[in-house]
Amino acid sequence: MKYSINTYRLYQSEKMFSHTVRIHVRMKDEADRAVLDQAVNTAMKRYPYFAVRVSLDEEGGYVLLPNDARVVVLPTGKKLPKLGSKAVNGHLVYADCEGKDIYLNISHSLCGGKGFQPWVMTTVYEYVKEKYNADPDSPGIRKPDSALLPTETAEPSMGMLTEEEPVFRRKDGKSPILAADYLNGLMNPFMRKPNYRVFVIDQAELIKVARQNDASVMALFFIIFARVLDRFFAKKYKTITGECAHNPRESLGLPDTHCDIMSHIHVGFDRDMLDRDLETLGTMTRGQIILQSDPSVSHAELRNLYSLYDAADQEHGIKNKRKYIAEHSHSTGHGSFVLNYTGQMDWGEVADYIDWYAYIIEGHFTIEITALADKIIVGFMQLVDTDKYARAFREELARIGLSCKEEGPYPKRLPKHDLPQG
Predict the structure, then answer these.
(1) What are φ and ψ of residue 254, in 5° steps?
(2) What torsion do the CA atoms of 267, 273, 278, 280 make, to the nearest 10 degrees?
(3) Cα 355 from Cα 333, distance rounded (Å)
């Protein structure tokens, strides 16, 4: 790849979807915008690779240049400014707040959940420290004055990928999707109403159920949401497939890189098996996740992706690069639902000041799961306004002995990009 891997998603079209992430942090007290402004800009000094602006080089390729301008912190409004615009000083990040809610907005090109999670934690740590004149014990959070980790700014290359034959190859064929929802959510102005709900679950109880049934947190949620969708698809469809992102950075020797190094795992469920005992499903699901996490599998997928990027580099001019990416996209689209889990992160005493936090991205029946102290938080995104899926989710939780607190629905407002067009 000629350019930084953090630039290639910028070529994707945003006519339908925003390629951004909005992190919703619900504090226990009212948010103070002046304090947040100070915290955001103090924390950003720890993450220079996010303090950038987008420019075009002589070949029409996107490049990221240092941006010393102040990161903007705004009151939350009905219309969000675009990332990269003058309104946010050209940055690909900014913050806004309202009531008890703090929102951190970032371009998905810069990173994924494993990349921006430390930045979120540092920002909230600094906010708590300044607002409450406190020094919360939080050894798991990177402090603004701490040094960059050895591989934190390292980027992957084709030479890092194994050429070993994959131990698993996905069979062709797509799982059913909620087609009517997608059509209404994308095309029908009377039905389109992007929104999200937040479900808070006791972590100890959930992990207890997972362990009793030979499942992980991820495996358990795959089963739950497959069972939810089983209620809504016609009987003619025999299989439901869940899709999740997998970041194989450890196998590349880049354990702390902020880059979004992404392969995908697909877990298929024969629908006539979904009523089998939870332990059988847990073993089966966990096995599929482990198998597809093997470096031979993830590296093969990355090799195809990086080949796409190399080919796009050969195109001259921003229009041609955008066109090539659009026509040769490796977007999978094989799942009935998308489910991602960033994993457990140690917030320390900072967690005492937060009610919950959730990642908001584009998509329908898209689930982003986070963890905070004794809580598992499920962010559930939709394109249309209906509570039937939320109701089914609560019922499936109850089926395995779990309960939850539900928040929302909230309007799903995501900023888009304002980028140089050549």
Answers:
(1) -125, 65
(2) -80
(3) 33
